[in-house]
Amino acid sequence: MLRVERDSSKPHGFKGFITRSTKLLTTMNTRHEIAKEFEGLKIRVKEASERRTRYKTFFETDTWYKTDDAVPKQNNTTIDPRLLALHAETTSLVGVKGPRDQLIQLMDGEGVPSHQLKVFSIVGFGGLGKTTLANEIYHKLKEKFQSRAFVFVSQKQNIRKILRRILSQAGFVPPKDTNIEMWEESEFITALHNFLLDKRYLIVIDDIWDTSAWDIIKCALPKNMNGSRVITTTRIEDVARACCTNHIECVYKMKALSDQDSRSLFFIRIFGSEDMCPAYLNEVSSEILKKCGGLPLAIITTSSLLANQPNKLKKEQWEYVRKSLGSNFEMSRTLEGMRQILNLSYINLPYCLKTCMLYLGIYPEDYTIDKNDLTRQWVAEGFICKDHGIDPEDIAKSYFNELINRSMIQPVDTDFNGDVMSCRVHDMMLDLILHKSREENFITIMDDMQDMIGHQDKIRRISLNMDDSTNDTAARSVQLSQIRTLARFGTSSQLLSFKLFKHLRVLGIEISAWPKSDPSLDFTGIRHLFQLRFLKITTEGYHVVLPSKIGDLQQLETFDISGNWKLPSDFF
């Protein structure tokens, strides 16, 4: 029993009652705020506990997959060289050489005079390897052409950006004192058309989703008589035919991998050689491959799941994968079927990697993600559990390597030591991530601040893709104080009021256009972001105005700004 003695020096009776009542009234607001904070803290703890329980349920009930073995061992996880070989030797390992040579022969074949412009389209289901095939053709032929470019379109198309990338890659140098970032779409079309008019060019336009994008892009491609070639890729046959002006002979339909190529890709990923598979796994492996339907993405993802098990030779593990893949994907090739295959690899991630994986959803489709940025963002968000004597950033890099090994993300650039320095997320894997993020309310994706109107869920992380300036009144009508990550991409220079983001930990702003008028970007409001740990601002031609002092940002760990800016006086 705890007894608290009353302080005899304090007034008693009616006078004491008045004193205590006055004090209670004067501190009521403070008490109310503290109560609100405690209530918010209780809710966040409960949400975290529920999330952790959901992530751990599978591991606690499963008999063959153990979390202790699955979690990367601090900073010593390296990338499996067999996986890098798959990406480095795509031609020989995933059956690309035959289709590549067949399509090249078609491009130079009879029917249309070789000096005329030819447009070819590769069409097929997502994950079949359309981009890989187009990339192989591009690298095989590019030296024969004066100008060349390889650009992505994707569902959220920005025609100005696409035309600008083609111009840049093709070798166009704008006249002195010309700011092409201020050009209208028609000016890009004219400039590209005139630049390519007397050249032999090779252009690859990857992942076109509708004919409207092609109708604009084709206006910029002159029908010269220099033997130019254009390759498009798409999932939609109507789009493929439109690109080829209904010349069916110019449409190449991607086929699934043959049984032999599927086996090669599958076993080389797991064992390093096609001939190393034990005989007792032949039957179950054949059944797994049937369910993958000859899709390289499905095969690599599934084989990487098995390759990363500590006891990968146990038949029980292979049987579990076979059962988990559900119905035969070869018989029913749908987005949901592919999502089911990818979901198996996601389910088998330890909970720490699940969180890191979902975080990739803040980046736009086809975005090349810098490893250092990503791992520092994970640390800033608090995803990395601290381990005595080990730098959290090193642990984060081991997580990155683990996701590469599991084929959840794809390596892009490597340094001279063979270390992967950047990655990309396959668009079908990104579809799964965004699907999971919506279920978990993990990340909110918006293309316009007006999308915030009527948004009911509490926003924790937000990715804004803004190409036009809009009124930020909508943002003020939504609860933004709990946001931990704000990632902003696009051409618009409009900024939200940073005072709205009381608990922001990660702030990434990327403006991919030059200023049209005022070149100043006001970031003085970041002085209120006392929880900020990661700050990266990427611009060209803008003057970034920072607060004169940022000494109060005690948590800031990453400070990365491009463009013109003045160092705060108390930076060091």
Automatic annotation (TrEMBL):
Matching Gene3D superfamilies: Helical domain of apoptotic protease-activating factors (1.10.8.430), P-loop containing nucleotide triphosphate hydrolases (3.40.50.300), Winged helix-like DNA-binding domain superfamily/Winged helix DNA-binding domain (1.10.10.10)
This protein's UniProt keywords: Plant defense, Repeat
InterPro entries xrefs: Apaf_helical, Disease_R_plants, LRR_R13L4/SHOC2-like, NB-ARC, P-loop_NTPase, WH-like_DNA-bd_sf, WHD_DRP
Superkingdom, natural source: Eukaryota
Limits of the NB-ARC domain: 115-266
Disease resistance protein winged helix domain ranges (all copies): 362-433
Membrane-spanning residues: none
GO MF term list: ADP binding
Keyword Transmembrane on entry: no
Gene Ontology biological process terms from the UniProt entry: defense response to bacterium; innate immune response-activating signaling pathway; plant-type hypersensitive response
Annotated Disease resistance R13L4/SHOC-2-like LRR domain residues: 482-571
Pfam families in the record: LRR_14, NB-ARC, WHD_DRP
Protein name (Swiss-Prot/TrEMBL): NB-ARC domain-containing protein
